């Protein structure tokens, strides 16, 4: 089962406002890309031929791991606005 | 504008315990939580020890959504192919005599929120506290965007990612080395199937913990909890180790589920939810300042988690700290003094309870548990020894010591085992 299939089972109320901002320009000079290994929802992925890092906030589980992973200061992390984001049914 | 006796930020175990304690004593309490409902953001492994919850809500299991009580603990060393377990089953009565309770956080906390409201507190959900209101150094309330809420004391219980704890200058941000990442799937399985597969009846429940290949030898482990009609299956791994070794917890949980000793337990189950959370695990070494003028901090936001290897205990500490925070605010109100000197009583209360005592007793445990041999060499050794004992190649058998010696080759030396045993004695 892929992570995106697992995430599709969760209840989300996705905010139109992006809560985590990633300065992808800074990611270009980063070789290791630790954020990819920090995020259990695989929101950080390498896409396209150039191998650029792309971030999508929609599947974010709000665990906060990514904000401890980046040494480049590329991740500006806050919670989604109140009421938005993941809504655990089981927890 | 109303000035509340206390504003509690976060309706988890710590926040609910604090709010309930204060509301029951007649204080005017506002609880703010960022989730759409109480419990929406709350996630954990699965079980807590009973006494503190019972102190707060006597006989809670009669009405609360408790999944099962703990009657069986299984602790296993695993390699890719093998699994060696210690299986402890204790059959002493039902819920009323249970040592621990398995619950699903989102469901249970919703119930706890209801109790807090019954006691007279106001809970407002869907509100993310963004900052404090200061008057000099004294915290006088909180901001939710442009809106101000005033209070004599703020009880900060907003969890491991508390950015507010840093804004209140109680601590600097945590570091990856001090955190573990937990990921979990809740998997639906019929009640009878759970009872047959796990050897339990009625309300009995099981917790299984695994050390070894489930984290590819990184510090952490795998776990399974039996809920009423589902399983909680997951892994917990040191965040720093994931980053350094370029391993994803999302891969580890799949590997763990596919292990030959694990797959038969959830087979034909249907995944219902996938969740993740961080756990502060460095104990007293990472604990922040617990109070300042107009504020006390409790639970994960204050790193109140005890990790002793066999136990990773947070909710119990959070609830006990919540009660202590509530009692502190009640006394501060009697004195009419909400400065840090009055709120320092909080630390005294935590010292008199198990919270700070246990964390002090196990001060060295987090460092000890970083030893890679626990997650690599020892599971390999234990399983290898078993494999050699239960294997016949048709030749005459060697004596057991020789078998052990053979199992140790290339994995761990006698000297290392002795040194680790000495360290374990000091740390645990």
Please characterize this protein's 3D structure.
The complex is a heterodimer of chains A (91) and B (428). Chain A has a single domain (3-79), classed as 2-Layer Sandwich (Alpha-Beta Plaits). Chain A has 91 residues and is α+β, with helices and mostly antiparallel strands. In chain A, the strands form 3 sheets. Chain A has a two-stranded antiparallel ribbon with strand order 1-6. Chain A has a two-stranded antiparallel ribbon with strand order 2-5. Chain A has helices at 3-7, 24-27, 35-38, and strands at 12-13, 20-22, 44-47, 52-55, 75-77, 85-86. Chain B is an alpha+beta fold and 428 residues long. Chain B contains 16 helices and 19 strands. Chain B has helices at 13-24, 51-56, 105-118, 163-167, 191-198, 239-245, 249-258, 263-266, 315-335, 340-343, 345-352, 354-361, 365-368, 377-389, 400-408, 414-427, and strands at 3-9, 29-33, 47-49, 66-78, 83-89, 100-103, 122-125, 131-135, 138-144, 147-156, 179-188, 204-212, 220-226, 230-238, 270-280, 291-292, 295-297, 306-307, 312-313. In chain B, β12 (204-212) and β13 (220-226) form a beta hairpin. Chain A binds chain B through residues 1, 3, 6-7, 9-10, 13, 32, 34, 36-38, 40-42, 61-65, 67-69, 78-91, and chain B through 34-37, 39-44, 104-107, 109, 125-128, 144, 160-161, 163, 173-176, 179, 181, 183, 185-186, 230, 232, 239, 242-243, 246-250, 254, 271-278.
């Amino acid at each position: 089962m892929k992570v995106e299939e697992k995430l599709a089972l969760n209840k989300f109320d996705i905010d139109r406002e992006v809560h985590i901002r990633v300065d992808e320009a800074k990611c270009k000079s980063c070789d290791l890309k630790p954020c990819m290994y920090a995020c259990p929802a695989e929101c950080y992925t390498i896409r396209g031929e150039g191998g650029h890092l792309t971030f999508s906030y929609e599947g974010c589980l709000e665990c906060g791991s990514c904000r401890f992973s980046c040494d480049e200061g590329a991740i500006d992390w806050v919670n989604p606005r109140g009421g938005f984001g993941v809504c655990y049914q089981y927890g | 504008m109303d000035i509340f006796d206390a504003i509690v930020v976060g309706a988890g175990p710590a926040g609910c315990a604090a709010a309930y304690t204060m509301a029951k004593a007649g204080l005017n309490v506002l609880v703010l939580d960022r989730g759409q409902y109480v419990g929406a953001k709350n996630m954990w492994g699965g079980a807590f020890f009973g006494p503190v919850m019972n102190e707060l809500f006597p006989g809670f299991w009669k009405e609360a959504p408790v999944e099962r009580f703990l009657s069986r603990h299984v602790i296993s060393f695993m390699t890719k192919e093998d699994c060696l377990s210690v299986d402890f089953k204790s059959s002493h009565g039902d819920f009323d005599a249970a040592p621990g309770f398995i619950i699903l956080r989102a469901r249970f906390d919703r119930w706890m929120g209801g109790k807090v409201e019954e006691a007279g507190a106001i809970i407002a959900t869907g509100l993310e506290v963004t900052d404090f209101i200061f008057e000099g150094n004294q915290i006088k309330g909180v901001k939710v965007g442009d809106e101000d809420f005033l209070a004599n004391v703020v009880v900060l219980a907003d969890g491991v990612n508390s950015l507010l704890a840093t804004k209140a200058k109680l601590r600097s941000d945590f570091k990856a080395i001090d955190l573990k990442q937990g990921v979990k799937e809740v998997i639906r399985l019929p009640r009878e199937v759970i009872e047959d597969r796990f050897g339990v009846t009625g309300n009995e429940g099981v917790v299984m913990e695994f050390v070894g290949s489930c984290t590819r030898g990184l510090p952490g482990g795998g776990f399974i909890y039996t809920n009423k009609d589902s399983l909680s299956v997951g892994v917990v791994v040191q965040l720093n180790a994931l980053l350094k070794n370029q391993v994803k917890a999302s891969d580890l949980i799949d590997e763990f589920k596919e292990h030959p000793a694990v797959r038969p337990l959830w087979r034909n189950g249907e995944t219902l939810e996938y969740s993740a959370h961080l756990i502060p695990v460095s104990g007293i070494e990472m604990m922040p300042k617990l109070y300042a003028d107009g504020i006390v901090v409790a639970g994960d936001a204050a790193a109140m988690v005890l990790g002793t290897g066999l136990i990773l205990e947070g909710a119990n500490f959070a609830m006990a700290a919540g009660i202590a925070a509530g009692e502190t605010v009640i006394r501060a109100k009697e004195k009419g003094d909400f400065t840090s000197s009055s709120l320092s009583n909080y630390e005294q209360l935590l010292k008199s309870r198990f919270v700070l005592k246990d964390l002090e007793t196990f001060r060295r445990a987090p460092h000890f548990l970083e030893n890679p041999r626990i997650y690599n060499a020892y599971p390999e050794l234990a399983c290898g020894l078993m494999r050699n004992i239960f294997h016949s190649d048709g030749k005459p058998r060697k004596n057991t010591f020789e078998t052990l010696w053979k199992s140790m080759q290339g994995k761990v030396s006698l000297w290392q085992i002795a040194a680790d045993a000495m360290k374990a004695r000091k740390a645990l």
